[in-house]
Design brief:
It is built from twelve helices and eight strands. With about 290 residues, the protein is of the alpha/beta class. The chain has a single domain, classed as NADP-dependent oxidoreductase domain (TIM Barrel).
Length: about 290
């Protein structure tokens, strides 16, 4: 099972196509139970995701679950990095964590000092795997050029945003786990193309092409989007964000289309988009 459950909506409002906002705690517990029933064994969270860590911690304590948790260090001064890590452990009600990533890459030298702190925590058996959450290929290039030793890279990857694709073979050669997020481009793939505004109007033609392919093949957009990432042999984890238990079940059902999607995979690759006003969500409101 490559699916990993993104949990930002457990702690805060998130997503362009999410009208309901933060998910109530009781419903979060139901979603996590359903995830485990379907073989999902990894959660992706962060200190910056509101009270997501605390909700997950309550669930883990109540259920005695052995779900793996990956969290992230927020932007902070180097001296405060270990304190933030221990705060995350307290929130999660555990004494060690599967994965811990640096959430920002804006100040490279400072981040490397923080990475040294994470490496020390790993040596003390507090963290199993360390790494970075990245947004731009230039960040990954910087890590590669400086031979930075890490275990996990988390990056955006979807039908439109294929900026990191050419780096996948090299990452696997060096034994780095590839975790991909934003497979639905924060819900953009489900928006009505005719209702897009601002910079997003640039995505209209690509979305129309995606919908046309979905109609032609009789494969839901959700299945096309999800399996595009799942079927990449270099990808270790595909992080999905969901807002209801029904949404989770739909994602699991979408995996049944893998056979059909293999046959049209090359056509999905052709949906690649280079315009960062479309594929980088931070640019949507500019």
């Amino acid at each position: 099972m490559k699916l990993s459950l993104g949990t930002v909506q457990f702690g805060m409002d998130y997503g362009i196509n999410n009208p309901r906002g933060k998910i109530p705690k009781e419903e979060v517990f139901e979603i996590l139970e359903e995830a485990e029933k379907n073989g999902i064994d990894t959660l992706d969270t962060a200190y910056a995701y509101g009270d997501s860590e605390k909700v997950i911690g309550e669930y883990l304590q109540k259920s005695k679950s052995d779900l793996k948790v990956i969290s992230k260090l927020p932007s902070c001064e180097v001296e405060k990095a270990e304190s933030f890590f221990h705060a995350s452990l307290q929130n999660l009600q555990t004494d060690r964590i599967y994965g811990y990533l640096l959430h920002d890459f804006e100040t490279y030298p400072e981040n490397i000092k923080k990475l040294d702190i994470l490496a020390n925590l790993k040596a003390r058996n507090k963290i199993q795997k360390i790494g970075f959450s990245l947004y731009y290929p230039k960040e990954l290039e910087c890590l590669i050029e400086n031979n930075i030793s890490i275990d996990i890279i988390q990056i955006p990857h979807n039908l439109f945003d294929q900026r990191f694709l050419n780096y996948f073979p090299l990452l696997k050669e060096t034994g780095i786990e590839i975790h991909v997020r934003s497979v639905f481009l924060q819900g953009l793939f489900f928006k009505n193309p005719q209702e897009l505004k601002g910079n997003l109007t640039r995505a209209r033609e690509k979305l129309l092409s995606l919908r046309a392919l979905s109609k032609e093949t009789n494969i839901p957009v959700e299945a096309l989007s999800l399996n595009f990432a799942i079927l990449n042999n270099f990808v270790d984890r595909v992080i999905i964000g969901i807002d209801t238990i029904a949404n989770l079940r739909d994602n699991v059902k979408a995996l049944q289309y893998q056979g059909k999607i293999k046959e049209i995979y090359d056509r999905l690759v052709q949906l690649k988009e280079d315009d960062e006003n479309i594929i980088v969500p931070v640019n949507w409101k500019r």
